[in-house]
């Protein structure tokens, strides 16, 4: 085949490349694992493969309960799906919708129309000082 053997240290240093999909990364890791000198238990290989993932994914994984690479792949897909869902649902809530209202001192001229204002519905979440 022409592929040389690799050490456990080299296998542990494998990282996911930026444009690489999760499945491609895990397949590449499996291929490199097959070329490794040392045979390691599956749960330790899962820890190594998880260590090569993006921090944003890795922080949401608890590899203690993952026994094999298939479970790792499933869990990573689940985390990515949840992140995408969260991003989709929160993108509508990120922008503040602000309307500026001019205020004035009441001089009694409009006090007679107060009943008219009171009967109208106005929803205000928060008043912020606006530009002059």
Structural description of this entry:
This protein is mostly helical and about 130 residues long. The longest helix is centred in the middle third of the chain and has 22 residues. This is Retrotransposon gag domain-containing protein.
Write a concise keyword list for the protein shown above.
132 residues, 45% helix
Layout of helices and strands:
Layout: H1 8-12, H2 22-34, H3 42-51, H4 55-58, H5 69-90, H6 114-119
Protein name: Retrotransposon gag domain-containing protein
Major sheet size, sense and barrel closure: none
Average pLDDT, rounded to a whole number, is 79
Structural class: mainly alpha
Shape: elongated
Q: Report how far the terminal alpha carbons are from each other.
A: 74 Å
Let me know the number of strands.
0
- The number of distinct helices, counting runs of at least 4 residues, comes to 6
What string, H for helix and E for strand, traces the elements in order?
HHHHHH
Extract low-pLDDT stretches.
Answer: none
Question: Percent of residues in helical segments?
Answer: 40-55%
Instruction: Kindly estimate the percentage of residues that lie in beta strands according to DSSP.
Output: under 5%
Summarize the structure.
This protein is mainly alpha-helical. The protein is built from six helices and no strands.
